[in-house]
Amino acid sequence: MTDTMKCPACSSEHAYQDRDLWVCPECGHEWSGAVEAAAETAPDAGVRDANGNALADGDSVIVIKDLKIKGSSSVVKGGTKVRNIRLQDASDGHNIACKIDGIGAMNLKSEFVRKA
């Protein structure tokens, strides 16, 4: 039994175990300790496309909607295929670096592409 279990809803340290569930007396939230332990040990899901498929460096993706290019009058049309993407860690959400024919190098958000 883990004595340092905290409530995931309110972060209370007063949670207690009742059979196979953990209970928080402050907010009334109940959860399974096995689910939380599995979530902590699960590997990072990585970058996912709009449909939930995992993306990797070198994959090809298809843009799912028209995207305006900031600072330009150009538009990346929905259905444009982008080859050989590179994944990057970006704080602004643009986690795909790529080169689009006719436009050049740019960054995309993974939520606007699907795996080809």
TrEMBL record:
It comes from the Bacteria. Residues 6-32 form the Protein YjdM N-terminal domain. Residues 47-116 form the Protein YjdM C-terminal domain. InterPro entries: YjdM, YjdM_C, YjdM_N. Belongs to the YjdM family. NCBIfam families: phnA. This is Alkylphosphonate utilization protein. It comes from Bradyrhizobium frederickii.
